[in-house]
Design goal:
CATH topology of the largest domain: BirA Bifunctional Protein, domain 2
Largest sheet: 9 strands, mixed
Helix content: 25-40%
CATH class of the largest domain: Alpha Beta
Radius of gyration: 29 Å
Shape: globular
Strand content: 25-35%
Number of helices: 15
Distance between the termini: 21 Å
CATH superfamily of the largest domain: Bira Bifunctional Protein, Domain 2
CATH architecture of the largest domain: 2-Layer Sandwich
Structural class: alpha+beta
Length: 565
RNA sequence: CGGAAUGUAGCGCAGUGGUAGCGCGCAUGGUUCGGGACCAUGAAGUCGUGAGUUCAAAUCUCACCAUUCCGACCA
């Protein structure tokens, strides 16, 4: 490719409002151009990277028996009514009508399409297991896209779906996919990635993993045990922690005045937060009347993902203005009201001598004894793990890190095959709903994640396996006829063996050299009057900055060695 | 969806009521040129959209739209 004709512009200016490295550099190096909020065009360099990532994904998916398909982007409502997701998914799904007034939608995930594709074609147990996958555009009407390609509305995704006759069979295949994912991320040159246990969310099913790039700009919190290497998304992470012992006492109302928050009440009563019981109130989406009151120990925070699973529906923080609840003085003792659901966290189980709100202004209650005052209630785990609490597996302290989710694998169980009525005949003649697994990788997000991880102060820095071009051919002083002729000759010969971007522009040396670094091309070959005088070229390795002077006759051999993946 | 901000040339920005500006980029000519060269000349704008106030609006008022950041959401 001649850079003079490349549809891509490099610039010194940082895009307005951008503060994430990969976002800034992908724009500055001419890889992407924003069309609208969360919607980007991939310019030629980015599309080349994307296609190399896709090629690696295809190879690994095919390697574990995957069959590539292509589902539609636009689907009719009826397909999604069957699974129940047309109504259960919110504004994130873009809906519209076709010319006849029929309800349609843009695909944001393809479980329904996968079941539709297989049902009635696959009829017998001996056709299972199998896995189908596609690499295609997804559209999710995200409330807040951000950070360039990290979180967008429209993106390319690999999504795969496997079908099995038993849970054991799925688990076996799930582990194969797990290993394939590790190979994919390693092959695209990602270094600091891990897998973590995750929440199934509205996908349903019983177990799931996410693959994460560890980075401070990540949107997810990950709980990691440095000792035994156990890892989980904060949404599902659990820990061991001390259960304090306080002196048992009878219930007693005490004046606390304006003290409302845990901190204020603790200061007022001269106690520690772990001696209090904190109330956090939520509304249930789709049920205006109901209020969920979650009680957790004062030193802990509610984990809304866990609470959502206990409640069995979407929850949002409740505005208490239109309820009977006394904000800042809510307590579980004697708390009554229509449409209240009270959930206790396990951190409270068996404690006594606790302080909680008295359900009236300016008063709290001391001496709360969980066993005595709440006989027979059920306790759920609904709190976030705090840094330093102990690993449930090995008992050592846990740490918390940030990560970007770059892929996930789910056990879907029979959620979709059952709701959509897909059955296969078993050897004994009975019909079962196959068990499904589902496996996603965001291609654009992986691209941005590798960019984020590998870039340095000079610009992007692609691993050889996914670099848009392997070699940056950089003639300096190509106004000189000898240099220009040699460059043209090299461009022709090298292009037959390598992916070459040829800087044929008549601009100063500095511009070419900095552009080659900004674009992150792994190997740069410089020729100039000076090097040609010795029949040499200068090779520079982008990742290390290492410079190698090489005889022109040896150039091809050297490049073959350097471009090896 | 809550909070905050921004919208002026391709990009980054200045411009508080009176002739539309700067830097980069682009075009032409010349001099330079192994780390984002210099000089000269030039092209490029419905100042986000619509209404209002005013003799006069990029500038003041209102509405709308778009974009960005923080948070919520994120299958």
């Amino acid at each position: 490719m001649r850079i003079s004709h490349l549809v891509s512009e490099r610039t010194k200016d940082v895009p307005q409002g951008a503060n994430v490295k990969s976002h800034i550099l992908l724009v500055r190096a001419g890889y992407i151009k924003q069309v609208s909020n969360g919607i980007y065009t991939l310019l030629p360099p980015a599309q080349r990277v994307s296609q190399k990532i896709q090629k690696i994904i295809r190879e690994e998916m095919d390697n574990i028996g995957g069959q590539e398909v292509l589902f539609p982007v636009v689907m009719p409502r009826e397909m999604w009514d069957k699974s129940g997701r047309y109504s259960s998914i919110g504004a994130e799904m873009l809906r519209f009508k076709d010319r006849t007034g029929r309800d349609m939608l843009l695909g944001m995930t393809h479980e329904e399409a996968a079941v539709h594709a297989c049902q009635n074609i696959i009829k017998s147990y001996d056709q299972l297991p199998f896995m189908i996958y596609q690499i295609q555009t997804k559209y999710r009407d995200e409330a807040r896209p951000r950070a360039g390609l990290i979180r967008v509305k429209e993106f390319t995704m690999k999504d795969g779906y496997s079908f099995h006759t038993s849970a054991e069979d799925l688990e076996k295949y799930y582990n194969e996919v797990y290993e394939a994912y590790n190979r994919i991320y390693t092959r695209i040159g990602m270094k600091n990635f891990i897998s973590v246990k995750s929440d199934n969310g509205a996908m349903g099913g019983s177990y799931a993993h996410e693959f994460m790039l560890l980075t401070d700009i990540g949107e997810d919190s990950i709980v990691i045990c440095p000792s035994c290497n156990a890892r989980a998304n904060m949404e599902v992470a659990v820990s061991k922690y001390d259960m304090p012992k306080f002196e048992d006492a009878p219930l007693k109302e005490v004046y606390t005045g304006k003290a409302k928050s845990i901190e204020e009440v603790c200061n007022f009563l001269k106690i520690q937060p772990n001696q209090t019981m904190k109330a956090v109130c939520y509304a249930v989406v789709g049920d205006n009347k109901k209020t969920v009151v979650a009680f957790v120990r004062g030193d802990k925070e509610v984990n809304e993902a866990k609470l959502k699973n206990v409640v069995g529906g979407e929850i949002v923080v409740k505005d208490l203005a239109d309820t009977e609840l006394v904000k800042g003085n809510i307590g579980a003792v004697g708390l009554k009201g229509d449409n209240l659901q009270i959930v206790f966290d396990k951190s409270l189980e068996g404690l006594c001598g606790l302080v909680t709100g008295a359900n009236k202004e300016e008063y709290h209650l001391t001496g709360v004894n969980m066993t005595r005052d709440f006989a027979g209630v059920e306790y759920f785990d609904i709190v976030k793990v705090n840094e330093g609490e102990l690993c449930p597996h090995c008992g050592k302290p846990l740490t918390i890190k940030r990560g970007i989710e770059i892929g996930n694998i789910f056990n879907l169980d029979t959620k979709y095959t059952k709701s959509m009525g897909m059955t296969v005949a078993m050897p004994d003649g009975s019909l079962i709903n196959p068990i499904m697994g589902c496996y996603g990788i965001g291609v654009g997000r992986s691209l941005a994640s590798v960019a984020e991880e590998s870039a340095d102060e000079k610009g992007l820095n692609w691993p050889m396996a996914i670099a848009p071009w392997q070699v940056y051919l950089c003639p300096l002083r190509n106004d000189d006829e000898i240099v220009a002729n040699k460059a043209e000759e090299l461009y022709k010969t090298l292009s037959s063996k390598f992916e070459v971007i040829y800087d044929d522009r008549k601009v100063s040396a500095g511009v070419k050299l900095t552009d080659s670094e900004l674009m992150g091309i792994p190997v740069r070959v410089v020729i100039s009057p000076r090097s040609l005088a010795n029949n040499e070229a200068e090779i520079t390795i982008r990742a290390t900055g290492e410079k190698i002077m090489i005889a022109l006759s040896e150039l091809e051999n050297k490049l073959t060695e350097l471009c090896k993946i």
